[in-house]
Amino acid sequence: MAFTDSCDLFASVHEDGLNRIADHIMRQRPSWFHFATPDVAANRELWCQVPAFTSDVERFGNPVFTLLPYLPVIGVDAPPVGLGFCVQMARAQVDLHPSSLFGLPDELGSKLRDQRLAIALRVCGGIRCPDPETLDRIPVTPPRDPRRERRPEPPRQVPVPGRMTCFCLDVFAVARVARETINGVERVVAKIDGVEIVDVEPKGLEAAMECYIRTAITLYLRQKLAIPLRTFFVDFPLFGMGTVSLAPTPNPPVPHNPAVEEDQLKVFVTMTMTP
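Now predict its structure.
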């Protein structure tokens, strides 16, 4: 059966192409995938992973990290104390159905279901751990009398230096491609079905981390990688004979559009012409 039996135009991209595009984006825009507090971002020796980026990043002064506020030490407010940290995506790979690039943990099933894609991530992070001598040198702020100050200013947070303690996690996710209306615009977006972190104990900690990562991936896909469906709609004149319109083929006759199958992401397009 020809790809255009149920449509007028057909386009697809292989998973190898998607992974090459992802690698190119990660090298061109490392700050989209690497996050750190200012002290860590400014000191290469504190990075848990040295990102691979193109020479243009340094040539044009583009950031390697997105800067984040210091991690607060809960319950400490005289003065507030913050710790430096970083979170970095060291590797990202996409595997389209029927899965040929990597295996999935048993918790996500031994095989990808139809119309599904798998995502493999290696996420590294670290926190600056101060030694006892450093903590002893932090002066204690005396309490303020609110009756003497109308609007007492809260004390400024004190960043505390320390040795960087790093770790890495292998994260797997299963997703599907769906159409969803966001802010009144129909978009194509990946929907996460499940997330699994390899070899994390105890189970409660693993479940909490998986919840956070699933939330982060879901919102990142919705906010950054949701493609407006109108991107696939094109109208253009044809030699004065009329207007050609291109739009995604509906269901039926195409059961899945976009479709994830045969290691490809496929799009089926219907063409109409009006005088």
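Helices lie at 15-28, 38-41, 55-59, 132-136, 203-224.
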